[in-house]
Amino acid sequence: MTAQLISGNEISKQIREELRQEIAGLKEKHNLVPGLVTVLVGADPASQVYVGQKEKTSKDLGIYSERHDLPANTTQADLLKLIDKLNKDPKINGILVQLPLPKHLSEAEVLYAINPKKDVDGFHPVNVGKLMIGEPDYLPCTPAGIQQLLIRTGVKIDGAEVVVVGRSNIVGKPIANILLQKAPGANATVTICHTGTKDIAFHTKRADILIVASGRPKTVTGDMVKEGVVVIDVGVNQVGMTKDGKRILAGDVDFDTVKEKAKAITPVPGGVGPMTITMLMLNTVKAAKLAAGLP
Ligand code: GUN
After folding, report:
1. Are 6 and 153 in contact (CB under 8 A)?
2. pTM for the complete prediction?
3. What is the Å distance from ligand 1's center to 102 Cα?
4. Domains of the chain (ranges, CATH numbers)
């Protein structure tokens, strides 16, 4: 079997077109323009690229976009002051503080300070808790994007054996919670593997849907999966550099051996990556509608 490629670029494009129309309708009918602010502390090159993409996509779709670039030595108090100001700014519906923050800052305190209604990343404990009890307002962007990839590829999630490798707060735990919900596009049986798991292959071999977010290349190889599995590779690992200075990326899955057994698989790049930003745009539109009291 050679796997079907699940194109995050294509599915992202579809969702962005739907959003573009919805945003145009909000402006026309309600004079409502969703607003997103990104906050970047320091000059990490990968973070600069991500924030630049978020800003560009917002503008492209008709979302009002603001960007705050703060120096690496910004104090916790100054960052909290900015968040307080943004919490009160009616033009702003979504606040995204790019992670990771420099070591001297407390990520937890910063995330807690964001008004949960403007928490389009879905990282505030209120939003984490709401997902946990099956009443989510905002789904975290990368896991929400994974669910859309599965739904829009026509993968049967209801009743499927889903195995997640990785238990981060950004991907592993929330995607497990999303697919566990008693809801359309979910209702799966979910297992989470992590560094404490005795025999990862025992679990991955049982998976109908395998989601790998371990942060380590080749965590899953062809001998660890069953024929016909659907594989979502969340990894973004720099494994080299081209002669002209471009990063060479690989996922967490050994693509060449796994694609021989999988029914469908996401490539890296062009799989999960583009979906994250798209779902951020979707959350921002949702935040604007919630703030305006629209359904
Ligand atoms: N850093 C890596 N992924 C993310 C994300 O989804 N949101 C934010 N704010 N920072 C990140």
Report:
1. yes
2. 0.96
3. 14
4. 33-116 (3.40.50.10860), 141-273 (3.40.50.720)
